[in-house]
Each structure stands twice: as structure tokens, then as C-alpha cells.
Amino acid sequence: MPCQPTAIQAQPDGEPGWRSPASPPSRRTLVIAAAGAACSAWGWGGAGSAHAQTPAGSTPAGPSALAPPDTAAFRESPELRAALARFAGSAVPVEGGVQVDIPELVENGNAVPVTVQVDSPMSAADHVVAIALFTGRNPLPEVAEFRLGPVNGVARVSTRIRLATSQKVVAAARMADGRVRTRHVDVLVTLAACVEG
């Protein structure tokens, strides 16, 4: 049976048509709501209900309601801090200068695409030596490390990583002069809204 389309459409804050008496919900909240609506469409929300809908402004109830993500999942674990400290050595990591392209909401954490790019001229005197990826709640926080040099031309790497659950992902870059730059991203891993069976 094909997956039923949902009736919830997430619109970025500030776009025409978006109205809310309170502060508008985050994009992540809207995506979770859409996933919950898809679950309801499959009948998970109640017996005999193919398209269970929740009135505007109310909180969905029952098994189809997806609880908000546990904020503890996005905290830096001691293992993550230790792994980052090993990579940084004597340097103090500084946030900035690193771009991370990774989905904020992932249905399947087995192969999550991620691209990391570091602002650097990649010259002989000023270049990126290494780029590393760390996770907060995987069994091993060190996910990947890439060695670079001036011959790379651009400090950009792409790969796929496995995420065991919702967690913080950290990209770190070690520069030729010893500085370490970082970027922290919270990634929500959820069950697929549509399943086959």
C-alpha cells in the first residue's frame, strides 16, 4: 500500500500564510508533526481512522504522537568531550570557520550524508591539516578523520556516517598553525513515517 501524503505542510517562519498567536514553532517541530500525521494516516492513531487529524493548537494524543526529542540527547557527553580533546591536543577548540551540511532530521541513521568544508586558503603557510567528525551518543565518538594538505586546494570532505540515535554531531578542523575550529550540529533521528509490511 503506497504511503499516504500528509496534510501538514511546513512553511519557513515569515512566509505569507503563516499565522500563530504565540511564537511560531521551529522547523524541527513542524517536521515531527508531519511525521506524526503520516503515522496517523497509516492508522496508528486509532482504530478505524485512516486520516486522524489533530485540531489546530492542540497536542496530539495516543501512539501516533511523536514526543519532542529529549534535550539530553544533544548534550555533549563526557566521551565526546574527551574525543574532541584528544583531537585538539593543547589547542582550545573555537567555534566557527567550519560549515557542516547534514540533514537536521534523519529517518534512517544507517547512512547519513555529511559534507564538511573549512574556510582556508589551503596555501603552504595556511591550510587545514585534518578534519574529523565526532558524535555524542554512538558507541565510539570518533567517526572519521581525514588528512589534508595544500595540494588538496579546497578543505572539503564528504562521507556517510552512522548515527545510532538523535545526537550532537561535531566537525573539527586542525589548522597548520595548531588552531582547532569546530561546528556543532544537532541531528534528530526518527523512525520512518511510512513503513512497508
In a few lines, what is going on in this structure?
This protein is α+β, with helices and mostly antiparallel strands and 197 residues long. The chain has helices at residues 27-41, 78-88, and strands spanning 94-95, 98-101, 105-106, 112-118, 128-135, 142-147, 156-161, 167-175, 180-189.
Verbal overview:
Strands 1, 3, 5, 6, 8 and 9 form a six-stranded mixed beta sheet that branches. A three-stranded antiparallel beta sheet has the order 2-4-7, with no helix packed on it. It starts with 26 loop residues before the first helix and ends in an 8-residue tail after the last strand. It contains two helices and nine strands, in the order H-H-E-E-E-E-E-E-E-E-E. By secondary structure, it is of the alpha+beta class.
The averaged pLDDT comes out at 75
Gap between N and C termini = 9 Å
CATH fold name of the largest domain: Immunoglobulin-like
The unreliable regions are: 1-21, 37-67, 192-197
* CATH class bucket of the largest domain: Mainly Beta
Tertiary shape: globular
Helix content: 10-25%
Strand content: 25-35%
| CATH superfamily annotation of the largest domain | SoxY domain
Provide the number of structural domains: 2
Main pleated sheet: 6 strands, mixed
Report the CATH architecture of the largest domain.
Answer: Sandwich
| Count of helix runs | 2
> Could you say which structural class the secondary elements and strand pairing correspond to?
alpha+beta
Number of strands: 9
Q: Encode the helix/strand succession as letters.
A: HHEEEEEEEEE
Rg, rounded, reads 20 Å
